[in-house]
Amino acid sequence: MTDDSLSLSVTSGTSVAAVWFALTDGRDSWWPELSLKPEVGAAVRETWTEDGRERSADGHVTEAAPPNALGFVWQQAAWPASLHVRFVVEQAGSGSLVTVSEAGFAQLPDGSVVRSAHEDGWAFHLTNLLAAASR
After folding, report:
1. Are 82 and 59 spatial neighbours (Cβ–Cβ below 8 Å)?
2. Residue 124, phi then psi, degrees to nearest 5
3. Which residues are in the Activator of Hsp90 ATPase homologue 1/2-like C-terminal domain (predicted)?
4. Using CB atoms within 10 A of its CB, is residue 69 exposed (0-12), middle (13-18) or buried (19+)?
5. Percent of the chain scored above 70 by pLDDT?
6. pTM for the predicted model, two decimal places
7. In whole angstroms, how far apart are CA 16 and each of 9, 27, 40, 77?
8. pLDDT at 1
9. Measured between alpha carbons, how far is 114 from 77 in angstroms, rounded to an integer?
């Protein structure tokens, strides 16, 4: 793994279909700040408050292959380039393996800082995704 990308994987006792539903149609229950439809070309937008100011990242869906893969690009206004995100949901025994990867950090002036923050953020979101999928 290079400093340009990150990848995190978690296993779940829930089905691929349940994870896919939580990732897409059920996402508001665990990540309401992210707006996207699992359709190639659909807009992606995440909004949050940081240091008392509203921030956002915008992009579009680049891959939608239910129930196994969802990809998108997104970019904050201050970034000179987009980051590429990809979720893969695979059968693993009676449950599933969920992997999220993100690439493009080397294109950002503070890419290593952003990468570290996003690694923590993805760990948080994966925990919430699995909790939502198992409800």
Report:
1. yes
2. -60, -50
3. 14-130
4. middle
5. 99
6. 0.95
7. 14, 15, 20, 34
8. 46
9. 14
Measured in whole angstroms, how far is the alpha carbon of residue 87 from the centre of its chain? 6
The answer to whether 61 touches 74, Cβ cutoff 8 Å, is no
Higher per-residue pLDDT: 1 or 55: 55
β strands within the chain, DSSP E: 5-12, 34-36, 43-50, 53-65, 69-76, 83-92, 95-103
Give the Cα separation of 13 and 93 in Å (integer). 9
Q: How many CA atoms lie within 13 A of 66 on its CB side?
A: 12
Could you tell me the CA-to-CA distances from 2 to 31, 115, 118 in Å, in that order? 28, 11, 15
Q: What are the pLDDT digits (tens) for 25-76?
A: 999 999 999 999 999 999 999 999 989 999 999 999 999 999 999 999 999 9
Contact call for residues 37 and 59 (beta carbons, < 8 A): no
What's the Cα-to-Cα distance from 56 to each of 1, 45, 59, 104, 129, rounded to whole Å? 27, 7, 10, 18, 21
